[in-house]
Amino acid sequence: MPNTPDVAVLAPDDLGWRKVTINGKSEGKVRSPRQLQALLRHAGLEEIGRDIHWVGGDDTVWPDRAVQRRAVGTIVFLGFLFPACLLIRIGWADSRDALTFGGRLAGYTVLAAGLVVLIAAVATLDYWHKRKRRYSGAIVLAGVVIVFLGSFSLLLMQLDEHFNRWSTTAGIFLVWSVVAGIGLIRSRAWKGLRNPGRIAIGAIVPTLLASINLAYSQIYVPYATIPLIMSGAEFKEATLDRTTASMQVTVHLSVKNSGQIPVYVLGSIYWIQGGASNSITEGRPPKYKMIYDGEFVTPAGRVLNPGEEITQDAVVEIKKPEEANYEAIRAQTEVYVIRKDRMILPPKYEESRATVETLKKEGKLSPNEPAHTKYRNDSDISNSSEILNVTRGRQHIMVWRVSNAELPRIDVAISPPGDRIHFNPALPNFNQEIIDRYGLAKVRGSTAQTPFKELLEKAESIEKGTSQGQSGQ
After folding, report:
1. Which of 175, 211, 318, 445 has a 20 to 30 A CA-CA distance from 326?
2. What is the pLDDT of residues 447-463, one digit of tens each?
3. Exposure of 270 by Cβ count < 10 A (0-12 exposed, 13-18 middle, 19+ buried)?
4. Domain 229-341+443-464, architecture per CATH
C-alpha cells in the first residue's frame, strides 16, 4: 500500500513518554494506547491498524506510572518552596540591613540562590510532566544542589551552637536533597544541556577566583582588624571652698576611637584615689584609698565611631584637704566596648538600667548576681546578619556596676539563648569564644597622678590671689 504513512513509536524515556513519528516527522509524545489513538486521529489516521513500527517495545510497553510520577513531582515541588522562602527572606534582610559589606554581599548571594530555588520549583512542573523545556532538568538539579549546600552549611554553622528548630529543618532538607539528587543523577537530568562540562567549568572557576579575592579584601581584612580605643584622665585646676571645708578638683576624662571599627560603649567607670606615692616599700605596692568613682560615658550603650572622642570634666570634692593624709592622688578610667560591626545593641539596653532595689521589687533579681551590685543593664543582642540570627539565635548581654569598697568595677557577660548567665568575677573570660566572636574588650586607661601637696598649694594660691583681688577693689 504505497499511500500508507510510515508510523513509528519510539522507545519510552524516563517518564514513560514514547515519541511518535509519521513519515519520519515528529508528531508528539504519548504515554498510553489511548493517547496514541488520539494523536493518530488528530493526524487523520483513524483507520490505521497494525502498520506501526515499534521501537524499544511493542504496544504492551507503557511504563508510565502517573500516580507515582505526580507524587514525586509534588514532593520535589513542595520541597523547593520552603527553602526558597527561607533563603529569600534571609537574603532580603541581609542585603538591606547587614552591618558589613561582606554581609550585604552574602545577602545578595543568598537572595539570588533563593530565586534560583524558586525557579527550580516552577521547573519541576515541566520536568515531571511533559519536559517541553530541555533545560528544566538542569534547573531542577541546580536547585537541589543549592538546597543541599544551604542545609549542609546551616548544620555546619551550628556544630558549636545550640541546636534549634532550624537545625531539624536543615537536617530534613539535607536528606531530601540527597535523595532527590540521586534520582536526578540517575536520570541524567543535565542531558538537555549541549556542553554541561564546559558550562560548569566556565561558571565555577571565575566565580571561585572572584569569591576568594572578595572574601579576603572585603570580609577577612575588616574582620581581622582590631579596634583601637584610647582612654585616659588628666588633673586640671583645683579650688578651695572654705564654707564647706573642702577642695574641688577638676578631672578631665576621655575615651577616643583611634581605630577603624565602630564600637558600643557598654559601660564606663573612673576612680579617684589618694594614698602614698609610687615608691614601693618592703616589696609591696603603695595602698590607695578610694575618694570617688563614677560613670563618664553616658548614655550607656552609645556608639563611638572611628575618630570620635567623648570627654567629660568631673569635679571631685575632697573633704578637709589639710587633714588628708595623701602623698598623691591618682585618676584612672576603664571602659567596656563591643564591636558594632558584629552585633546590634538595641535601644532597650540603655532603658533597661535598674537598681538592685528595683530588681528585687519586680522579682527579677537572680541569685547569681555579683555581690554588691549597684545596678544592671541587660538586653538581647542581634548578630551582624540574619543568617547568623538563624544559626546562633539572639544572644543576651548583662552589664553590672559593682560597688566594691576597695575598687568598684564593671562586670560583663554574654550568653547564648536559653542559657542562664552564671558570671564569676574570678573568671571574667570564662566564655572566651563568645568574647572573641563579638569583640568584647575591657580598655583600662592610663593612670594620671599628681602630688597632693602641690595640688593643695595651687588651690591655696588661687584662693589667695582671688582674695587679694577682691580686697584691692
Report:
1. 445
2. 899 898 888 888 888 76
3. buried
4. Sandwich (2.60)
